[in-house]
Structure formats: C-alpha cells, structure tokens
Amino acid sequence: MSALAWLELIASGLITGGIYALVALGLNLQYGLMRILNIAHGEFLMLGAYLTWMLQTSFGVSPLWMVPASFLVLMALGLAVHWLCFRRLGATSPNLDIFEARGLMIAFGLMFLVQNFVSYFWGGDLRGYDFMTEPVKVGAAQFAGNKLLVFALALLFSGALIVLLRTTLLGKGVRALMQSPVGAQLVGIDTQRLHPVMFGLGLGLSGVAGCLLSMAYTISPSMGEPYTVTALIVITLGGFGSMSGALAGGLLLGVIEAIGMHFTNPSLKALLSYSVFIAVLLLRPKGLFAK
Amino acid sequence: MTDRQFLIRDLLVLFGLTGWALSLPFYGSEFMVSMALTCLMYVTLSSSWALFCGSTRYLSLATSAFFGIGAYTSALALAQLSWLQSIALGAALATAVAVVMGAAVLHLRGTYFAVLTFGMTELIRHAITYFEKSVTGTVGRVLTVVPERDAIYLTMLALAVLALGTSIGLRRTRFGLALMGIGADEQRAQTLGVNTRLIKIAGFAMTAAFAGAVGAAMSVRWTYIDPHTVFNPFIGFQTVLIALIGGAITLWGPLIAAIVFSLLAETLRLKLPHLYMMSLGLLLILSVLYLPGGLASVRTDTARGWWRDTQAWWRERRYEWSGDKERDKRRERERRLV
Predict the structure, then answer these.
(1) What is the pLDDT of residue B96?
(2) Chain A hits for B275, Cβ within 8 Å
(3) Of B15-24, B138-147, B273-282, B320-329, where does mean pLDDT reach its minimum?
(4) Does the beta-carbon distance from B104 to A106 stay under 8 Å?
(5) Does the beta-carbon distance from B115 to A117 stay under 8 Å?
(6) Predicted ipTM > 0.85
(7) Is A286 on the interface with B (CB under 8 A)?
(8) Predicted TM-score of the model (pTM)
(9) How confident is the model at residue B69, as a pLDDT?
C-alpha cells in the first residue's frame, strides 16, 4: 500500500471519527455528569434528523439553519423530560446505584416511546435529501463535501464544549458537579438548576448531531440504536465525563474501524466495534486515557 | 402467616394454575393456545431472570443471547437428537456461555454490568450473522423436523412450572439467601462468609439455562429462524420490563405482568404496533416512577398513598396560585423589618 492510500484511509477514518465524537458529546454530558445512562440518546438524535429532513423537504429551509433550531427544540424537550421524570426519580431514589438502574429503565421507556412515535408519525421508510454532495478535492484525494462540513462542525462543537467546560465559571460548576454532587451543593452551586439545564444541553447536542448527520447519511426510525452504541463505545474509550477524552476516543475508533475494515471486510464493522468496546470495558473500565 | 403457610399457599396456587393451563389445549382455540404459549414463554423468561437479577440487583440484558443460543442449538440438533435431548443441549450450551460470560463480567456492578451484557449479546449476534453469511453461506435456517403443537405446549408449561417452582424453593435455601444478601450489600455478604463470585456465576448460569431451554423450545414455532429474530435484543428488553413492572423480587409479580403483557401484545400489536410499543414505554416509565416495587407490591394502601400525594400537590398549587404564598412571604419580610 502506498503512502497516499494510507493517508486517504486515515483521513476517511478521522472524518468518521469526528462524527462519532459529535454523536457522543450529549451522552457524555448526561452520563458523565448526572449518571443518567440515556439509552434513548440515539432516538433523540433521530428526532433531530427527522426535524431537519422535514423542514428541508417541505419548506426548503437550509439544513444549516436547522442546527440551532434543532438544538433549541431538543433542549426544550430535554428540560420537559427532566422535569417530568428525572426530577422525581432523583427525589425518590435512596442512593446513586438505584438512581442509575432506574434511570436506565426510564431511558429504555423513552427509547420505545420516541422510536415508535417517529415511525408512527413519519413512517418506516429510508429518507434523505441532497446537500453539498459534490466531492471536494484535497490534494490527490477526494472527499464528500457534506462529510467534510460535518467533520468541521463536529470539531468546532467539541472544541467549543471543551473550552466552555475548562474556562468559564459555568464549566467550573459543571466539573464540580461531576466530581461530587454533594460537595458542589456545599460550595453554593445551584445543582437544582444546573441539573435540568445540563440534561437539556445533552439532548440539544444530540439534536445537533442528528441534524448534521441527516446532511450526509440517509435516515430511518431504526437509525438511533447503532448511534447510541457508538456513543457508548466512544465515551467508554475516552473515560466517562471527559470531553477531550471522548473527542480523542471518537477519532481513534474511526481510524481503527477504517483500517480494520480495509484489511478484513466491511461486514465485520459491527463485530469490530463491539470487540473494542468489550475489551476496553473489561481491561480499562476508566477509559484509555485515565491516569 | 408463617413461612410454612406461605409455602403451602404458593404451592397450591401453582398447582391450580398448572391444572388450568394443562386443560387449555383441549378446549381452547388455536389462537388461544398460541397466546398461552407466548404467555408461558415470558412467564418462564422473566421469572428465571428475576431469580438471579431480581434478588442480586445485577441488571442483565443478556437474556436474548441465551435465548438465541438455545434456539440455534435446537434448530441444528433437532435433525439428529430427540426433542427433549435438543432442549437439554440448548440449555447446557447457554449455561456454558453464561459461565464464561459471568466469570468475565460479574465483578462489575450497576450500569457497567448492564451495558457489558448488552454489548456481549450484540457481539454474539453479529458473530453468528457473520459466520452464517461467510462460512455456511445462508442467512437463516429452516426447521424441517417439527414436533406436534401439544408437545411444544407441554414442554413450555413444564419449563414455566419448573421456573416458578425453583423460585418458590430457592428463596428458602442457603443459596437463595446468599443471592438476597448480595443484592442487599455485597461486601457485607462477603464478610459473612459468602463466596460471592461462585454464587453469582451459579445464579447467572441458572438464569441462562432457563433462557436457553425456552429458546430451544420456541425455535420450532417459527419454523424459520435467523440471527435477527432469535437474538433480537427486544426479547431481552421485554423480559426485563416484565420482571420489573411485575416486581423483580416478588414471586408472582413476573407471572402477573407476563400475562398482562401477552394479552396487551396480542390484542394491540396486530392492529396498532406503534401504539403498543409506545404504551409499553409509557408503562415502563410510570411503573419505575410510581411503583418501584412492581405490580405485585400494589396493596390497598398504595392507591391511598397516591391519593394523599395528589392532594398534597394540589394543596400546594392552590396555595401558590391563589397568591397566599406570595402574601405570606411578604408578611414574613415585613415582620422582619419591623
């Protein structure tokens, strides 16, 4: 294999990896911060994708406008879900273990609800639209324009989130909440308000991811589950709750998959990512980059 | 009631239910029997799931893996072995897989365990799909040798009775107590001399044996199986849902919930499949929030408690909306100033 082919392979792996990192952002916030393992993450992502598709095909709204719009819609939905379910759950659960287990069950319920709502409302067909489909030449290699755009925006959003968490007072509060909820409350962080906002932010980010994905891939009501699994793999690779870890983990997974698929065969993709997932969970449950 | 009276009551209820189920194929229609079969399948799956996962609070999502392994085993073995032998083989293989899986993952608790069992289930499913596609060159398998309807029904009934009987008996043995102890506080159980590792693996293997046997018995009903149907993660989800909605630590909860669900499924699924799944999700959320002990924990006091909660909530709202809260706050402030 020539050097150029290698470069092209790794570049395409990185592009997929950037998308994986984007998909994982919201779940990372929800699980790392609040111990809510939102299995319905992919379903909310799909909701964002469907909203974008609907407005694009019916009213001709540019998908780029839909990025903030789907963020806001999903964020509002997240606040509502938190207010209806997780507020009571937090108040009635005796300890964190039970909260986690019950939160997982509620997320399963949400998954069934959202998935079937979408297939009831929009039908089960594959959908999609054309957006920036012309290939872009980078040196001798060619990449799809929409995927490059998605990759760039994915890096932008991950970077923005990392900066937000590292440098601002809000980010400090969030990181304190991640370390110790009781301690955060003791030093005067309004956890009662921060919790719903962070859950909403997580859902909003999944909406953004869905919106961006619908530009490059076809969408269907069953697209959510694979993305949930991908997001889970990525956040385990990077360590729960670490944004920069998730970005690195996503890129790494993309490259591993691209190289693995090139040398074996494409139908092994799912097998490969599950093996990586299980190996990491068993051998390094705190993530690849944990000290 | 004393423990002995409870035992006699449970055994009598089980005996009565068995008798009723035994007579069903003689007067019921074809549809009723097939519905009863689904019922029995979920009764067995969720009761045996609750045996281990209910008492130890290890949330396993691997039921569909064991189910699928059983189904594939009997599909392959039925050509050579007899009906009962292939079921036993299915259960044995599922147990073997569970022992290996359990040894690898049972030191992890909580969400880690749930996610890992789910991941392993998917791994097995994808591995078998890949194997079938690339080595055998088929997607699914057609079952040519199929036993009679009554034989399948009786086997499923026997498995369900066995699962419930084990559940009745187990909670009175040292093993059952050890499982309960692990669920209450694992470290304390270890301190008290329970070999938690062995007990957990044994419990997990027992659950898997039942799931494997059910898979082996149910595969002949489909006559055509492929990895997508028998390793369907939904089988595992639904088992967990039924056990949790019924009450995972209770004896009769999974049975009650399984019957309710099978009836709901058969009546709603054909006409309104999406509505069925949506109501399933909604029921799950509501039961986790308002009935954490499950359906079997409902007593007359439960409704009274909800009524009290609603009243208190409404009183609070009225206090707020009528402006009394605002007024009281203001008066409080003024009193402080004076």
Answers:
(1) 95
(2) 116, 120
(3) B138-147
(4) no
(5) no
(6) no
(7) no
(8) 0.85
(9) 93
Residue among A102, A110, A112 whose CB faces B292 most closely: A102
Put simply, the answer to whether B59 touches A104 (Cβ < 8 Å) is yes
Residues B123-144 have pLDDT tens digits of 899 888 888 888 877 777 887 7
Q: Measure in Å the smallest separation between the Cα of B288 and chain A Cα atoms.
A: 6
Nearest to B46 by CA among B207, B243, B213: B243
Pick the residue from chain B with its C-alpha nearest to A115: B278
**Per-residue exposure over A256-277, b if at least 16 CB sit within 10 Å of its own CB, e if not:** bbbebbeeeeeebebbbbbbbb
Start-to-end CA distance of chain A, whole Å, equals: 36
The residues on B that touch A, with CB distances below 8 Å, are: 57, 59, 104-105, 108-112, 114-116, 119-120, 122-123, 126-127, 130, 133-134, 237, 240-241, 244, 273-275, 277-278, 280-285, 288-289, 292
Question: In b/e form, how buried is each residue of A60-90, taking b as 16+ CB within 10 angstroms?
Answer: eeebeebbebbbebbbebbbebbeebbeebb
Q: How far apart are alpha carbons B231 and B149 in whole angstroms?
A: 23
The pair of structure tokens assigned to B136 is: 């055998």
CATH number of A3-283: 1.10.3470
pLDDT in tens, A3-25: 778 888 888 888 889 888 888 88
Distance between CA atoms of residues A145 and B104, nearest Å: 44
Give the model's pLDDT for residue A291: 65
- pLDDT class for B68, splitting at 50, 70, 90? very high
Nearest CA-CA distance, residue A163 and chain B, Å: 29
Chain B interface includes A95 (CB < 8 A): no
Model confidence pLDDT, tens digit, residues A205-241 = 999 999 988 888 888 888 888 888 888 888 888 887 7
